[in-house]
Write a structure and sequence with these properties.
three-stranded mixed β-sheet; 8 strands; Ribosomal Protein S8, Chain: A, domain 1; three-stranded antiparallel β-sheet; mainly alpha; 7% strand
Length: 505
């Protein structure tokens, strides 16, 4: 029994131990399996991460390659689009060009139709005219034909005339220059002698030797102090004074006259007489200026400017004394300014001083107008007076007073007898000149101005066109050349002017 119990206990113990051992073994196996599973899982997870990273890298590479490919395709598509746009633009331009050409063709076709119609119209007109001509006599037909040819060829004839004028202008100018050169060559000496010399009468030929002096000392002293040249030749009882400066010629003449009257002729005496004569000449110049200003009622001139005015007494132009001319122009300008309600003072001063530059033009370079303008600025004259002096002898005066002075200057210069021209010649030239112009039926009025050196013809604008005006100017010029004898040239001006005046009330 006990044995059985022991055996049973041993069996139970064995069973328990076996169970425990089995459980331990099973637990160990399970733990080992878990460890292996964990290891496998860990390895799998690491491998999965590695695969994931590789997949991401590959995906990124694929995406980048795809992006690059997309950009490349985009560029290609853009280029294709650009080419398509260019082709479209070219097609549009060609279409526009075709449209323009079509429009031009249509316009040409229309013009052609119009010209054709005009030709047909002209044909009909010519046919009618021929029918009329067929009924005319020979003289009538000739007259109709001449009128037609003249009408059709007027423009062409004028153009040809202008062309011929242009072609011959150089030849005419050259011929005129040759003629002028020949005239100057023949006449320059005589003219210069007349305008640059003075003659002093001597009581006897013995006086020539005294004026020359021992070894020529007297004559050299006179020439040096007066700035002139004394010419002592075989002319009996006369000495010639030569100089371009009129004041120097006048000074030398006065000095010689005083020395001859005094009888004492030697270098010391010559110096005394020259100094005294210079003082007398200065007083004479001042008196001439004062007399001119007093005659005009001017009292506010600078003394130096008055002296310049007095110097004009010894200056001539075309045989006309410049001081007398200046006073005359000033008086005329003042009278004209009074009538035209212009500034009388400006006109008076401008008329007196319009040629003031001629007082110094032998001593300074430049025209007398430029020199006169410098003088006016130096003495601070009114700007309008300066403008008159600077614009003297111009065709475009700046002010009304300047125009008045120009007119007064022309009146004074053209006055019969003013400039070495006889009254009869002046009257005849002016009368004949105006008569030639007035002979034309469509000439309203004609005026000869500037001492007959210019004629201005006013025509009726309703009856005369521009071409006809040119024709009249040409015919008058030709008629003047054939009919009149005159020095220099005569300017023919045809004025065709239509003025329309209305009043707003």
């Amino acid at each position: 029994m006990q044995f059985n119990i022991l055996a049973l206990g041993t069996l139970l113990l064995g069973l328990v131990l076996g169970y425990v051992a089995r459980k331990f073994i099973l637990g160990a196996a399970a733990r080992s399996a878990e460890e292996r599973a964990a290891t496998i899982l860990k390895d799998t997870s690491a491998k999965a991460k590695e695969l994931l990273l590789e997949a991401k890298d590959k995906a990124m590479r694929l995406a980048e390659e795809g992006k690059i490919e997309e950009q490349k395709r985009h560029v290609e598509l853009k280029e294709v689009q650009t080419r398509l746009d260019k082709r479209e633009a070219m097609f549009d331009a060609k279409l526009l060009d075709l449209d323009k050409k079509q429009q031009m063709l249509q316009a040409d076709e229309q013009k052609l139709k119009t010209v054709t119609q005009e030709i047909e119209k002209v044909k009909e007109e010519q046919k009618e005219k021929l029918q009329k001509i067929a009924e005319l006599s020979t003289d009538e037909a000739r007259k109709v034909l001449m009128n037609f040819v003249e009408k059709q060829s007027k423009d062409e004839l004028v153009a040809r005339m202008r062309k011929l004028e242009n072609e011959t202008q150089e030849t005419i100018t050259k011929k005129a220059n040759d003629i002028l050169a020949g005239v100057i060559e023949r006449c320059a000496g005589t003219f210069t002698a007349e305008t640059t010399t003075l003659t002093v009468a001597l009581p006897s030929d013995e006086m020539k030797g005294r004026i020359i002096g021992k070894e020529g000392r007297n004559i050299r002293t006179i020439e040096r102090l007066t700035g002139t040249e004394l010419i002592i030749d075989e002319t009996p009882q006369a000495i010639t004074i030569s100089s371009f400066n009129p004041l120097r010629r006048h000074l030398a003449k006065k000095v010689l006259e005083k020395l001859i009257a005094d009888g004492r002729i030697h270098p010391g005496r010559i110096e005394e007489v020259v100094e005294a004569t210079k003082a007398d000449l200065a007083n004479e110049i001042k008196k001439a200026g004062d007399d001119a200003l007093a005659e005009l009622g001017i009292t506010d001139f600078d003394p130096k400017l008055t002296a310049l005015v007095g110097r004009l007494k010894f200056r001539t132009s075309f045989g006309q004394n410049q001081l007398e001319h200046a006073v005359e122009v000033a008086q005329l300008a003042k009278s004209l300014a009074l009538e035209l309600k212009a500034n009388q003072t400006v006109a008076l001063y401008g008329g007196l001083l319009h040629d003031i530059g001629k007082a110094l033009d032998r001593e300074r370079e430049g025209t007398h107008m430029a020199i006169g303008a410098e003088i006016a600025k130096q003495y601070k004259l009114h700007p309008d007076v300066t403008a008159i002096i600077d614009g003297a002898h111009t065709d475009a005066p700046r002010t009304m007073e300047a125009a008045i002075v120009n007119a007064a200057d022309a009146i004074s210069a053209s006055r019969p007898g003013a400039r070495r021209d006889s009254f009869e010649n002046y009257i005849k030239r002016v009368t004949d000149l105006e008569a030639i112009a007035k002979a034309y039926p469509d000439v309203a009025q004609a005026y000869a101005i500037s001492a007959g050196r210019e004629i201005r013809i006013f025509v009726t604008p309703e009856k005369i066109d521009d071409l006809a005006a040119e024709k009249i100017a040409r015919e008058v010029a030709k008629k003047v050349e054939e009919s009149l004898v005159y020095p220099g040239e005569i300017r023919v001006t045809v004025i065709r002017e239509k003025r329309v005046v209305e009043y707003a009330r």
